[in-house]
Write a structure and sequence with these properties.
The complex is a heterodimer. By secondary structure, chain A is of the alpha/beta class. Among the domains of chain A are: 270 residues, MetI-like (MetI-like fold); 79 residues. Chain A contains 23 helices and eleven strands. In chain A, the strands form two sheets. A six-stranded mixed sheet of chain A has the order 7-8-9-3-10-11, with helices on both faces. The longest helix of chain A is centred in the N-terminal third of the chain and has 37 residues. In chain B, 41% of the residues lie in helices and 23% in strands. Among the domains of chain B are: 136 residues, 3-Layer(aba) Sandwich (Rossmann fold), CATH 3.40.50; 35 residues. By secondary structure, chain B is α/β, with parallel strands linked by helices. The longest helix of chain B has 19 residues. In chain B, strands 6-7-8-3-9-10 form a six-stranded mixed sheet, with helices on both faces. In chain B, strands 2-1-4-5 form a four-stranded antiparallel sheet, with helices on one face. In chain B, helix 3 crosses helix 4, helix 3 runs parallel beside helix 5 and helix 4 packs across helix 5. Classes of the chains: A alpha/beta, B alpha/beta. The interface between A and B is large, with 70 and 91 residues.
Chain lengths: 596, 277
């Protein structure tokens, strides 16, 4: 029996404290404030019977236009002698009911049909989308007004109809989100596990869409309140229903005599709708920052280097080296203020015309090292080195900016993902020509590019020149990028996992090409890879990296045949044996053998 | 004796979206079989249709014609209700352990999902989870943690535990170790082999990596552009292939030894020259 040791790549991450978006809203001052305002106003509405002694529609001729502070009439009375406080409190309830009905109808209809449409797809999707698109074209406010005779003036029904027309917005949102997650592997896994569609939707898919739905709901609640108030302001609806709209309309008639009367309804209306919008915004912000460490785009800027360190050229040995790196350290500042080191003081040299492999597992810092040399690390990376000299130009210290000049001329780069390194909106040719026109005319550059494309083994250079990246295969795209990289006849080519994304037969061709080009141009190659086969194929010398340090370096044969470091040995041992196909050595007692 | 899984003349095409677009056939009549407790390695490059075969077996892709029989019963064209019954027998481990687990769910919920879907009580499922975590070499407290707290290799162990939850007879493994580091890869492959010894589960092991296939498979089928070009016992296919594409595939994979690789490169060059005439 084998016992299982945990995977070696267990960097035992500390359990992260992830706060839910809802909790984040509470720590956002704007979110918290708007939530408190909404809750307070709601509470006022609910406590209406206790807070006011009058019926909102009870008119007393004695109290017409009573001023603020009149006993029993805290906010005064309006032009018909009705208690303004009582009417404000009643209007709050009407507004809240409008918000619930309007947003509720929109969210329920939009979510249910959005889920069905996005998940089922095909014809159902086409039909439902068509219906909702049609609904979007109706002028909802006009329609709500026209339908007034049908609704009989009931504001609830009116707002429900309005909610119907808000539904397409939610529908489109939900549908698009569902289409996005429907093909996620965990949804496939749930289908294979035998989960019914209903449970997949409620368990896996609803989780993804609930955040955006909450945001949209907050906005729609505000919209519903505004529409109800607006219609009432226009005088549509029963005048027995107190509402901010009706109150502003009444106060409007009185604006010269009693200007204060218009303040109360507008104040509460603004607070309420404003709070809903701000709450939605706060939730959106909470979701946006809630994502797990988002990948930052690498910016094409030389990263800041430590000015305290000056290159110490004297330390170099007499052997001429093309690239000399001494005590390179790369770290990233963490949220808690510490700096997380990813490269911990490595030194190496690359001689002219030498092919050096930089090998390691994920997280070993091999790509960080290559990017540090290229000056392509993100701007928050902290890079320090005692010396980093490329073709007699120092990359650290006073002349640090020179990497931009060296890039292309002295050093070139081949990336791992050829496709994502070509701009899909431009033809292959125009992208290559762009890099060359600095020196000569466009015609000359085009001729050079066609020559280069032929050199890297592209069968029909003219056609590839005119093609867009999506029209060529991954192997062709990598050839195109190699053509771009060698265009300036660099002295050093840095290749970051150049064949990892390619099929094995294509990989072999690309390796052949790199070998031929290396021999022809006499350039040095720094090959970053995890694949020992690729190293064995191409490299003269190997450096093995682990946790930011070079643990072993040596001639390729020495590394493969007599590895010194235990880590190198464990890596080599992990290579699946080439020559012994699966022999059930340990399966003598296997039930299968006796079965058949 | 009927095979556990028998695929005959399977044809499948994908229709690109749009009005009256022509469908592209990606499988041109595939036939293969897997016996109980056996591992069939399905090797091919991108676009060869290897993943599509797996998806057809899992019911995630609908074949145009041909038959897929499981224990003698036809399973292609099953309704989703019938398909759910089959979840007890056929399970899956996908390539990418980062997207095949729902990041919002705890490990225990992920693993118990198939159990509960098949009518298990949450209490039973919880106790099963403990056994499954142990089986795939994860600590018992992993259950109430979230996927993001685990490395790629550990996540793949979670995916394996989920696949094993219903004690299936066949697991479709779609490039399950391709996203993993070398050392992790070896450990996970050992785990697959160990589980097979314990439970006699059969694997349809889909991969592009010949070294992986050689390590895990009893038999190999080589797929090229929607056709199986060669099939046979692992030893004979990977040491003395009869098909020219298989030979090229074998020689293209670089071997981790500078001198052997030089020989292999020469052999490949000669093969090319012969092919070119």
């Amino acid at each position: 029996m084998t016992t299982y040791v945990p995977d070696i790549d267990t960097a035992e991450p500390a359990p992260q404290v992830r706060r839910s978006p809802a909790r984040k809203v509470l720590t956002n001052p704007l979110g918290l404030a708007s939530l408190i305002v909404i809750l307070l106003i709601t509470a006022l509405g609910l406590l209406a019977p206790i807070l006011s002694s009058h019926d909102p529609n009870f008119a007393s001729l004695k109290e017409v236009n009573a001023p603020v502070g009149t006993p029993g009439y805290l906010l005064g009375a309006d032009g018909s002698g009705r208690d303004i406080l009582a009417r404000v409190l009643a209007s709050i309830n009407v507004s809240m009911i409008s918000a619930v009905i309007g947003a509720g109808v929109a969210v329920i209809l939009g979510t249910v049909f959005g889920l069905i449409s996005g998940y089922v797809g095909k014809r159902t999707d086409a039909a439902t989308s068509w219906v909702f698109n049609l609904m979007m074209t109706f002028p909802s406010l006009v329609l709500v007004i026209i339908l007034f005779p049908v609704t009989g003036g009931s504001y609830q029904i009116t707002i429900a109809i309005f909610g119907l027309f808000l539904a397409p917005g939610i529908f489109r949102l939900v549908r698009n989100l569902v289409v996005g997650v429907r093909n996620e592997l965990y949804v496939d896994a749930a289908r294979v596990a035998g989960l019914p569609a209903r449970r997949i939707l409620s368990r896996h898919i609803f989780y993804v869409i609930r955040g955006p739905i909450i945001i949209a709901t907050a906005f729609m609640a505000g919209a519903a309140i505004n529409v109800q108030a607006g219609l009432a302001f226009l005088g549509l609806g029963s005048n027995r229903v107190p509402s901010f709209g009706a109150m502003t309309a009444d106060a409007f008639l009185n604006i010269y005599a009693q200007p204060l009367q218009i303040l109360w309804p507008s104040l509460f209306l603004a607070l309420l709708t404003g709070s809903f919008v701000l709450l939605g915004n706060a939730y959106r912000d909470a979701l946006a920052t809630g994502g797990v460490n988002k990948v930052r785009r690498r910016r094409l800027q030389p990263a800041p280097t430590d000015p305290d360190h000056t290159p110490s050229l004297t330390q170099r040995d007499s052997e001429p080296s093309l690239l000399h790196v001494s005590n390179l350290r790369v770290g990233y500042p963490q949220a808690d203020g510490r700096v997380k080191p990813v490269v911990q003081g490595i030194s190496f040299d690359v001689a002219p015309g030498e092919v050096v492999g930089l090998v390691g597992e994920s997280g070993s810092g091999k790509t960080q090292t290559a990017f540090a040399v290229l000056g392509l690390l993100p701007s928050d990376a902290q890079i320090q080195a005692d010396a980093m000299v490329l073709a007699d130009e120092s990359l650290v210290g006073p002349g640090a900016k020179s990497i931009r000049r060296l890039r292309g001329g002295v050093v070139s780069y081949i990336p791992q993902e050829p496709m994502s390194n070509l701009d899909p909106s431009f033809t292959v040719g125009s992208q290559l020509v762009e890099g060359l026109t600095a020196g000569g005319s466009r015609q000359e550059a085009k001729a050079t590019v066609l020559e280069l494309l032929a050199r890297v083994g592209i069968p029909d250079p003219a056609r590839t020149f005119r093609s867009y990246p999506h029209q060529i295969s991954g192997g062709m795209a990598q050839r195109v990028l190699i053509a771009g990289a060698i265009a300036s006849r660099p002295k050093l080519l840095i290749a970051d996992e150049p064949t990892t994304a390619l099929d094995v037969t294509v990989q072999a061709e690309i390796l052949d090409l790199l070998r031929d080009l290396q021999a022809e141009y006499g350039m040095a190659i720094l090959l970053v890879t995890h694949n020992f086969g690729v190293v064995a194929d191409l490299c003269d010398r190997v450096m093995v990296m682990s946790s930011g340090r070079i643990v072993e370096t040596g001639d390729v044969r020495a590394i493969f045949h007599a590895p010194q470091d235990p880590y190198t040995r464990s890596l080599l041992n992990a290579i699946l044996d080439e020559d012994t196909p699966r022999i059930r050595a340990t399966t003598a007692d296997h039930p299968k053998e006796t079965q058949s | 004796m009927t095979a556990l899984l028998q695929i005959d003349d399977l044809r499948l095409s994908y229709r690109s979206p749009g009005w009256r677009r022509k469908a592209t056939e990606v499988l041109h009549g595939i036939s293969l079989h897997i016996d109980a407790g056996e591992t069939l390695g399905l090797v091919g490059e991108s676009g060869s249709g290897k993943t599509t075969i797996g998806r057809a077996v899992l019911g995630l892709a609908t074949p145009d014609s041909g038959s897929i029989q499981f224990e003698g019963r036809e399973i292609s064209g099953h309704t989703s209700r019938e398909r759910r019954q089959l979840a007890r027998d056929i399970q899956v481990v996908f390539q990418d352990p980062y997207t095949s687990l729902n990041l919002a769910l705890q490990i225990a919920d992920i693993i118990s999902e198939p159990l509960i879907a098949q009518g298990g009580t949450p209490h039973d499922a919880r106790s099963q989870v403990k056994r499954l975590l142990d089986q795939v070499g994860l600590p018992a407290d992993a259950g109430n943690r979230f996927p993001r707290e685990f490395s790629g290799g550990q996540r793949q162990r979670v995916a394996i535990a989920r696949a094993l939850a219903l004690s299936p007879k066949l697991v479709v493994c779609d490039e399950p170790v391709s996203a993993l580091d070398l050392t992790t890869q070896a450990l996970v492959l050992d785990l697959f082999a160990e589980i097979q010894r314990q439970t006699n589960v059969a694997y349809l092991f889909i991969t592009h990596d010949l070294a992986v296939v050689r390590h895990i498979s009893d038999r190999v089928a080589v797929l090229y552009r929607g056709d199986i070009v060669e099939t046979g016992p692992t030893a004979s296919v990977t040491s003395s292939p009869t098909n020219e594409y298989t030979r090229e595939l074998l020689l293209a994979a670089p071997v981790a030894d500078p001198d052997l690789q030089r020989e292999r490169r020469e052999a490949r060059r000669q093969l090319r020259e012969i092919a070119a005439g």
